[in-house]
Design a protein that fits this description.
Blueprint: H1 7-18, E1 21-23, E2 30-32, E3 36-40, E4 43-46, H2 47-64, H3 71-95, H4 101-114, H5 119-128, H6 133-154, H7 162-170, H8 172-175, E5 181-190, H9 197-215, H10 220-226, E6 233-240, H11 247-254, E7 261-266, E8 269-279, E9 285-296, H12 304-319, H13 324-331, E10 343-348, H14 354-362, E11 372-374, E12 377-390, H15 392-423, E13 426-428
Antiparallel strand pairs: 1-2, 3-4, 3-13, 5-6, 5-8, 7-8, 9-10, 9-12, 11-12
Length: 430
């Protein structure tokens, strides 16, 4: 379905299409080919649009093997969604919000990349499936607008306190975020309970040979095949927490590092286990830089070249011994940091625009950068220190905050959508 962005023209076009009459080739009478299904404030939903969306839902359900409701239930549900979409698109129109072609092009390229294709291949796949790329593209534009409208009206309604984060982290769901799980690969060389000492020694030697070979880079599965004559069998135990781990493996696994191989003796024989991977409760270490900056913005009365020269002059004064913080307070156009002497504090990599970050990386501690230009203007940086910081706790709390936010967001979104619908003029015609 093609998303429409110009609502005045859409109103006219739809009213005109509703009045179109088509002469039948076999009859002298005429037939109306479309009509209005609902009036929604300043917009209309056409019956053809309703039927097309309903048919699409039915086809998707059949293709996925899902059970679907009656035609009336599907039709009513689709009409409700179309009404809500219309109301949100009208909000976007009144706010003057629109997704331009450059942003849409980037979104389409990202979608193609997520599907393992370049954009040209993605277009071909869509067209070969019988769909119109132009229509898919416009639907993506419409979906992006809807998401922006929803975020703009709902995000500020979601409030999360530190106590809520603490309570979440203390819950089973929160504890699962830091739960340590191990992935084990495993080979069993069986040994009967009444086996001879020679048979036990033979299998123990085989287990030790497998252990050394795997530690040297051999695959555990290949070693299991090599000792198939002794009944060796391999099984991937997958990801397991401590409770899910076979009891005889718990002790050895706790002392193992990723890639380690151990031998465990049990009544059933010799087990060779390899710790393939471990996750959960990992430390998150980030490189941080302590820095200050001065920003000079070009204006109508200050050209870009004059802004660069002004920054260069301030840099020369700082190198000559003047206090950088005092210069920032007096001259910097960054109102967020000027009163702090240009101080940006300890900052993580990835915080700033590329040009700024490149200068931050390449400038030694205690030195000033050359003047650099970004989208904001001309800067000079002072690098005051570097460190590696453990931000594991912050990362954990941010993950918890994100999960709580998503839950609350969906609740608030439903409330906002219902309120929007209740306050709108909706006249269902069919």
């Amino acid at each position: 379905m093609v998303g429409k962005q110009r609502f005045g023209t859409r109103w006219v076009r739809r009213l005109l299409s509703a009045a179109v009459l088509l002469a039948s080739f076999s009859h002298a009478e005429v037939a109306i080919i479309d009509r209005i299904a609902a009036i929604v404030d300043d917009d209309v939903i056409m019956l053809s649009e309703l039927e097309a969306r309903s048919n699409m839902i039915r086809e998707q359900a059949r293709a996925s093997g899902q059970s679907i409701g009656s035609d009336e239930e599907i039709r009513n549900g689709v009409l409700d969604n179309l009404i809500l979409e219309s109301l949100q698109m009208q909000i976007a129109q009144r706010a003057g919000f629109y997704i331009d072609d450059n942003r849409l092009n980037r979104a389409m390229a990202n979608i193609a990349q997520q599907n393992g294709m370049d954009l040209n291949s993605f277009v071909q796949v869509i067209e070969q499936s019988g769909q119109s790329y132009a229509q898919v593209r416009e639907q993506v534009r419409k979906d992006m607008i809807l998401q922006e409208v929803q975020r703009g009206n709902v995000n500020h309604r979601v409030q999360i306190t530190d106590d809520e984060i603490d309570n979440f982290l203390a819950s089973p769901e929160g504890k699962a975020l830091t739960e340590v799980v191990n992935r084990l690969d495993h080979v069993l060389i069986p040994l009967a309970s009444d086996a001879s000492a020679d048979a036990e020694a033979e299998r123990n030697a085989a287990a030790e040979t497998i252990q050394k070979a795997v530690q040297s880079g051999e695959a555990l599965a290949e070693m299991a095949l090599k000792y198939g004559s002794l009944g060796a069998s391999r099984s991937d135990l997958g990801w397991r927490n401590d409770e899910q781990m076979p009891e005889i493996f718990r002790g050895p696994v706790k002392t193992m590092s990723k890639g380690d191989v151990s031998i465990v003796r049990s009544p059933s024989g010799f087990h060779v286990i390899q710790l393939v991977d471990r996750r959960g409760n990992e430390a998150t270490i980030v490189e941080q830089t302590k820095l200050s900056h001065i920003l000079i913005k070009p204006t109508e009365v200050l050209s870009d070249e004059e802004a660069r020269e002004k920054v260069a002059g301030l840099l020369a004064r700082a190198k000559a011994g003047e206090d950088f913080a005092a210069l920032a307070k007096e001259f910097s156009d960054d109102i967020g940091t000027a009163q702090r002497g240009g101080d940006l504090g300890w900052s993580n990599m990835g915080t700033f625009v590329p040009e700024f970050e490149e200068a931050m990386i390449n400038t030694p501690v205690g030195e000033y950068s050359d003047p650099i230009k970004t989208q904001f203007g001309w800067h000079v940086l002072k690098i005051e220190g570097r460190r590696d910081e453990d931000v594991s706790e912050l990362v954990l709390r941010n993950r918890a905050r994100s999960m709580i936010h998503e839950r609350k967001y969906q609740e608030e979104l439903e409330i906002w959508l219902q309120k929007t619908r209740d306050e709108a003029y909706v006249d269902i015609k069919s």
